[in-house]
Amino acid sequence: MKPFDSYPEDGVNILPKMIGANCRHEYGLNLQKLTKQTKCAYCGVDLTSDYYRWLLLSVDHVIPVSECKRLGIKESWAHSYSNVVLCCLGCNGFNNRYQIQKYQRLSEWTPEIFFNLRDEVFNERKKIIDDKRTSEMYFFNTYPREKGGEK
After folding, report:
1. What's the whole-model pTM score?
2. Percent of the chain at pLDDT above 70?
3. DSSP letter string over 8-20?
4. DSSP, residue by residue, the chain
5. With contact defined as beta carbons under 8 Å apart, do 72 and 109 qualify?
6. Which tens digit of pLDDT belongs to each residue from 55-95?
7. Is 17 within 8 Å of 26 (Cβ atoms)?
8. Rounded to the nearest 5°, which phi and psi values hold at 142?
9. Cα distance between the two ends of the chain
């Protein structure tokens, strides 16, 4: 199941442009209300169970805005709720320089082409982020660090 399955019209309708300047108070909260989602789309961590997890709340542009510009995708689609997912700050930071390799600039994008690309990119990025999370977890579990003020 993709996160877009819980979006209005099963995620295949261009939704309004994100509004607001704060994720936890405005655009992220709006996305939660729109989709009823409360977990990171990539790792599944609950982002609303307590205050400290709520502080991790972020949204990720599935097709990065820079890639939308490069490919000629409308700016309103790039910033649409249709192109973002709720995620935690960790997962959002794991793949911020993503570049789409197999698509080129089109003279006209249809919603169908856009949503197919978004879904492909989400699946590819989820795998990349899962791999990065595994690597980071290994590092965390093996790197010697101070605990409770002791070495």
Report:
1. 0.89
2. 97
3. GGGG-SPPPBP--
4. --GGGGSGGGG-SPPPBP--S-IIIIIHHHHHHHH---B-TTT--BSSSSHHHHTTEEEEESS-HHHHHHHT--HHHHTBGGGEEEEEHHHHHTTTT---SS----S---HHHHHHHHHHHHHHHHHHHHHHHHHHHHHHHHS---BTTB-
5. yes
6. 999 999 999 999 999 999 999 999 999 999 999 999 999 97
7. no
8. -110, -15
9. 44
């791999």: which residue's tokens? 131
**Would you say 77 and 71 are in contact if contact means Cβ atoms under 8 Å apart?**
no
Mean pLDDT score of the chain = 92
Q: 39 pLDDT band (50/70/90 cuts)?
A: very high
